[in-house]
Design brief:
Helices cover 30% and strands 27% of the residues. With 313 residues, the protein is of the alpha+beta class. A hairpin with a 2-residue loop joins strand 12 and strand 13. The mean pLDDT is 94. It binds adenosine-5'-diphosphate (ADP) and magnesium ion.
């Protein structure tokens, strides 16, 4: 007999031991109840992944469960929020038990790592669509917003740029190289920079996570802060695989356009730069003059590249 809605929730998602002290009531009632610590703001975000838009048909469900949670935790990280709880809305074409088992495995692997409770959700039938809503806490006044960049601030990022974009090209069969596995891993299982986001509280003036391409996402900081910026090509952190891709194809804007890296891009005022510990790369500087420029091969040019946007084609 096929698994019905409530059996499915019971079997794959409910009944887990609570890992986070804020959860007063989890799955099973009309709402969950969270006990948000005094003096904190609740940071709330949601991200959806749709088959054939955000992932290829036939993608490994274990990776999908992991990535769906990771992209939401990345949004919390970019605000300097500590993740506490998530809800999960699943729209499934049918009940495929082995798919659900693998999906839950990837999802709960990452949830357990950060001691996050799944506290509720919704389950419906329809075209495969996966949504997580994530909640985190951040002390009042310490959230990292997009609007806090000022001229003279350094622009920094965590990790490396362009590997997920390269991973997508490899997954689609558009490019092949010897470090195939690393790039695919970065595309399939992005690391949310949760600890880095927490460490940037009271240091970064602004922060965003790179989900739709560095040029576009940094553009959001520039717009909301009413400033411009200049990136330094030589300082951009590329892996060996991305360097090889650029050398082979000449396509140097790929790492600036491609999404899915889920690294943090943030700005730090000069007087706070000494407080920055950990491995970050300084990639440019915030300027008065609007627009995004790049200093490359001895000249400075306007960077006109588009990231990913829905409804734009
Ligand atoms: P309601 O009809 O009140 O919205 P449901 O009957 O849809 O509630 O769900 C029953 C319980 O299971 C609720 O606590 C809901 O939050 C939870 N739930 C439903 N789907 C999921 C899911 N995919 N993951 C986690 N919890 C879920
Ligand atoms: Mg209800």
């Amino acid at each position: 007999m096929p698994t019905a809605e409530f059996d499915l929730i019971e079997r794959f998602f409910a009944g887990k031991k609570s890992l986070n002290a804020v959860t007063e009531l989890g799955i099973g009632d009309d709402c969950a109840l969270l006990n948000v610590p005094a003096g904190c703001r609740l940071a709330v975000t949601a991200d959806t992944m749709v088959e054939n838009v955000h992932f290829l048909a036939g993608a490994d469900p274990c990776d999908l469960g992991y990535k769906l949670l990771a992209v939401n935790l990345s949004d919390l990280a970019s605000m300097g929020a500590e993740p506490i709880a998530v809800t999960l809305a699943l729209t499934l074409p049918d009940v495929d038990e082995s798919w659900l088992e693998r999906f839950a495995e990837g999802f709960f692997e990452l949830a357990a790592h950060y001691r996050i409770d799944l506290v509720g959700g919704d389950t419906t039938s329809g075209p495969l669509t996966l949504t997580v809503q994530a909640m985190g806490v951040v002390p009042e006044g310490q959230a990292l917003r997009r609007s806090g960049a000022r001229p003279g601030d350094g622009i920094y990022m965590t990790g490396k740029l362009g590997d997920a974009g390269l991973g997508l090209k490899i997954a689609q069969g558009d490019f092949c190289n010897t470090q195939r596995h690393d790039s695919l891993e970065r595309f399939n299982r992005p690391k949310p920079r949760v600890e880095e986001g927490l460490a940037l509280r009271n240091i970064a003036g602004s922060c965003i996570d790179v989900s739709d391409g560095l040029a576009q996402d940094l553009g959001h900081i520039l717009k909301q802060s009413s400033v411009g910026a200049c990136l330094d090509w030589e300082s951009l952190p590329f892996s060996g695989a991305v360097k090889a891709y650029i050398e082979t194809t000449g396509d140097w804007t790929m790492p600036l356009r491609a999404g899915d890296d889920y690294e943090l891009c943030f700005t730090v005022p000069a007087d706070k730069a000494a407080s920055l510990t950990g491995s970050y790369t300084r990639i440019g500087v915030i300027e008065d003059s609007p627009g995004l420029r790049i200093h490359r091969l001895g000249t400075t040019e306007l960077l006109r590249v588009q990231g990913f946007e829905h409804f734009s084609h």
